[in-house]
Design a protein that fits this description.
The chain has 170 residues and is mainly alpha-helical. The chain has two domains: 79 residues, no CATH class; 73 residues, no CATH class. The protein has a two-stranded antiparallel ribbon with strand order 1-2. The longest helix has 25 residues. It is globular and about 45 Å long. It comes from Croceitalea marina. InterPro entries: DUF6624. This is DUF6624 domain-containing protein.
Length: 170
């Protein structure tokens, strides 16, 4: 977990290169364990290490490969459900689909006058806070302020609007 977070809080191009190397090494290690034993859930390695394995996958390009194992781990009580919910949302976002729990935000043009921050589109924005309260204990509006600052105002974008922003960067 220490390695997974080592350079994420102090982002520079040099640090990000180092973090990518660490992430690759961590992923190889977790994948080896998973190949031999399945997901290293809390009954196998304890809650903290089970969560650390989740972070390694969450920060990789292999979410599509492991999302079903993460769901199974959450369903079996081996991983907190909130972590599965976050990975599911990221999985949906990476596949240009609306998320369920509103856990994934996006930032573009950081530090420029065109900077934009938003919560990735949500499938059911009218009921997401009921769902979130049971899993995370906060509303999507509160989460957005935690993520982007007190001035952030939540607006549920359509997938088309979010993709237009995303594609304007690429």
């Amino acid at each position: 977990m220490v390695l997974d977070q080592k350079y994420r809080a102090n982002w520079t191009p040099e640090n990000w290169s180092k973090q990518i190397e660490i992430d690759s090494s961590n992923l190889g290690y977790v994948e080896k364990i998973m190949k031999e034993h399945g997901y290293p859930g809390k009954s196998m390695v304890g809650e903290k290490t089970a969560s650390a394995a989740w972070y390694v996958i969450q920060h990789s390009d292999k979410i599509d490969v492991y999302i079903d194992e993460i769901k199974q781990a959450a369903d079996n009580g081996e991983l907190p459900f909130r972590l599965y919910a976050m990975m599911l949302d990221r999985h949906l976002m990476y596949n240009d689909k609306a998320q369920i729990y509103g856990t994934q935000g996006s930032s573009y043009f950081i530090g420029s006058p065109k900077e934009i921050n938003f919560i990735w589109p949500i499938q059911n924005p009218d009921s997401v806070n009921i769902l979130r309260k049971g899993v995370f204990g906060t509303t999507v509006e509160e989460y957005g302020k935690d993520l982007f600052g007190d001035d952030f105002e939540f607006k549920n974008l359509t997938i088309e609007e979010a993709l237009k922003i995303k594609n304007s960067v690429n």
